[in-house]
Predict the structure.
Amino acid sequence: MSDPVPYAITTQDLNLWYARFQALIRVTTRIKHGLITSLIGPSGCGKTTLLRCFNRVNERYGYVTTTGEIKLHGKNIYDPDVSLVELRKSVGMVFQRPNPLPISVYENVVFGMRIHHARAQLSRARLDEAVEKALTEVGLWNDLKDRLGMKATGLLLEQQQKLCIARLLPLKPEIILMDEPCSALDVEGTRAIEELMFAMKGRYTIVIVTHNMAQARRASDECIFMLMGELIEHNRTEELFLNPHNPKTAEYIEGRYG
Amino acid sequence: MKPDTPALFTETALVRRKYRQETVAKWVFFVMAAAMIIPLLLIVGYLMVKAAPSLTLGFLLDVPVRGMTEGGIWPAFVGTIYLVFISLAISAPIGILAAVYLNEYARDNWFNRVINLAVINLAGVPSIVHALFGLGAFVYAARFGYSILSASLTLAIMTLPVIVASTREALASVPRSFREACWNVGATRWQTIRAVVLPNSISGILTGVILQVSRAAGETAPIMFTGAVFYKAIEKGDLFAYGLHEQCMALSMHLYTISTQVPGVKESIPYATAVVLLGSVLLVNAAAIALRVYMRSRTKW
């Protein structure tokens, strides 16, 4: 990608309040383009809140006040000319529990296209092509190509989660946000999703929230440690785990609290 | 082991007492639950026995004759259908759309809370008060006169809050994860509602609306004040007997009339009228349940 900025996401003094409660405190960070960055920290430390800031979906969950700036590829997403529809189109999110819509596999994949294009623009051939491409990319095509009409809620959890990732792809996202994408999956499912993340790395910037330190360690390039709404440390993953600079980070990764 | 030491795991007096209490409690609760069935069976059985001589298809399709002391109930039956359908045709769209606004768009501010309070209080207004309001607002102020239109509007206002409440409940039962899935591909609220929320709540919404049929069909006071009459001559079996600005007969009103106001009515006729009213309502409710079961079997998550 011909991107002059090597950073996909930068935040500067980002503060966020849910009503009176301050959930993020002066978060300043730079997340590199094309890498997998994991957010770790104990429950309630603001990981998910920070993740939800990146496509401004926080604003749908109630009273949220934000100050500071978030730039995606150099563009401040709080600029008045930013369209939330376009922003969320290029910054997709995957959730803890797979949330396929209760419609067919095929319709799930093309759901985003139907949202963003007029009916006349979507020929059957174009949709078919998008479905094949997206499902191939997440490794579901061979399993599901004869069952595209089946209800997505009837799939295995692992397949559902892959489908939720595939659902984002026809919109050509830049950034994929994952909120504990493996916590509902078993070992095999977790491995499959992690392998998928590796395969997608480079083309997409992936930010993943995880409770599982082992997962952060094996599956991410960079790691951000948060505590009580503050960003404590951001470093290359090996560096953060082997040689933490902040004593709080060291104690957390040793398992003294969390 | 001493001889008076009980063997292991045997009942003591305390255990036996607890078991006795347990049995008594179970039977008390069972009898109370079973008591629900008795009045229903008695009412329905009593009505059926008393109504038997008049229960024919002819009774339904015929018009009342000889000063309503004989004949059928067709004008009242058609009138009730008119009132129920017109009132729900008015209240269902308004109620459903209002509920969508309240549940999907409105933020939790003073305006939303005022609307909520209004819905709750409107649901608690006695029907006779609705009747007086309908009389003042529709019959006189809006100059619709005593008519099907006035009566239907009055019934619509009466059923509106319950439809709003049941629709909100149906909308709220759609899992948030479905909405999140939509938001995060950039769907607007309306796209989310159309693509995900409505398809997954439509069975609950329809059930709520259909259950209001029984209320609209059963209420007497609101229509008595605004558009129902004792007697209206129409053709036997004519389905398009009434115009919007005419008055009509209605089953609930007719039942009241022939039971209390007209002397010398054949004894089985009021009972048969009650059976028809009850039967229509039960039929509609059964249809609502069937619809819900059918739609639930299709939407699974």
